[in-house]
Known about the structure:
Helices cover about 75% and strands about 0% of the residues of chain A. Chain A is mainly alpha-helical. Chain A has one domain. In chain B, the strands form 3 sheets. A 5-stranded parallel β-sheet of chain B has the order 2-1-3-5-7, with helices on both faces. Chain B has a two-stranded antiparallel sheet with strand order 4-6. A two-stranded antiparallel ribbon of chain B has the order 8-9. The longest helix of chain B is centred in the last third of the chain and has 17 residues, at about 125-140. Chain B has one domain (about 1-145): Rossmann fold (3-Layer(aba) Sandwich). In chain B, helix 2 (about 25-35) packs across helix 5. Chain B is α/β, with parallel strands linked by helices and about 180 residues long.
Amino acid sequence: MIWVWIALAPILGGLVYGGERVLRARMQRRQGPPLLQPFYDMFKLLDKRTLIVHAPHALLAVAHFFVLWFTIAAIFLGWNLLYIIFLHLFAQLLLIVAGYSVRSVYSHIGSNRELLMVVAYEPILILVAVGLYLVSGSFEISQILKMDGYLTQLPLLFAALLMIVPIKVKKSPFDVGEAHQEIVGGVEIEYSGVFYEFLYMSRFLEYIFIYSFVYLFGGESHWLGAVLVAGVFLLVNLVDNATARVRPAQMVKIIYTVAMALAVLNLAGVLL
Amino acid sequence: MKFFTSFRKKSPWVLHYNAGSCNGCDIEILAALGPKFDLERFGVINTGNPKQSDIFLVTGPVTYRSRERLVELYSQIPEPKVVVAVGSCTATGGVFRGMYNVEDGIDRYIPVDVYVPGCAASPQLIIDALVKGLEVLEAKSKEIEKPFKLFGAIETIHNKLSRLGMAKKVEPHAKD
């Protein structure tokens, strides 16, 4: 059963992404695209002529997607949280190398920003894992999901996680990595056709990745987890519609001062 | 594949290029993409990246400075692709017709599929043109489409290197 879910993970993420586009449209009082729009886009991309800059560049996008899929599989199978975080970091590094491997300046800037994003959110993700460990006594997701009361013991850590969700799903105010108006999508810029599709689908998997961290705070109760995910989903989209983009340096500064302080305070409170 | 062809018209991604327009048509395009006219309900995304777009929305008569970019952007869009010329300027040169720094219309450089009249073209007309363009897009094959004129090569004019065709204006239309 769990293998079916793993196989369907990109489709699940696509539905989330489609739902998000509808939700954002409704927030702006417009009709918005159909729910299945991401899949229409994917089918259309299969029908386009593909332009390849050079083979490793195209291949790194495919590798990025499959490593990310493996990460999602590890989450669904309930493996070690630290292992999952570093696996995700590896997928991210593949994308960054891909961005540096072509001569497009925008691609390089995109890679730089992608690195800055990793620098910003990675410590918080690890602190979240440490916080969950301190409460449950284990890094294994299957163990973490058997315990309860994360939200009461780690409220500030949850707030810190909330701050890095927009970075991961590339939403304002922290969408510096994509930034369509300035750097035209960053690392995505030189991809087209089938290979762009892999990046498009890996975006769906990123949604599942970061929202599963939110889900972990629900602990044993599936209902609490689902409510948390739905609430964070709404909040992130509301903030996305209401705010402008910050500069990359500002993003790192905000995360390192506010989110880091919240996380460390909470961990200190748990430890003492 | 035949199955995927039917999805072309469900997700047209748009590349918008201003070839020396007065910004009137660009504002109307943005209005069409905005909440009131909501082009996104047809699956339209304004990508801004030629390699990922299907529909090329061009505004403005082609100025000397912009023609090289126009051709370059056109040839970077992977097939199948559709060109929609927005506004009178793109069709005939409009109010700029006959000016010293302007080519009269984009169809001297790239093949155009849909013309939108109007100065500035209204958002309703732009939406109509996009929907018309989708029919063209679905009928197209994946054959490579070339611009009428390329600026890739280099020629020598008066002992100076110049991009091919940049030094002289293209021949005017037969009956001007």
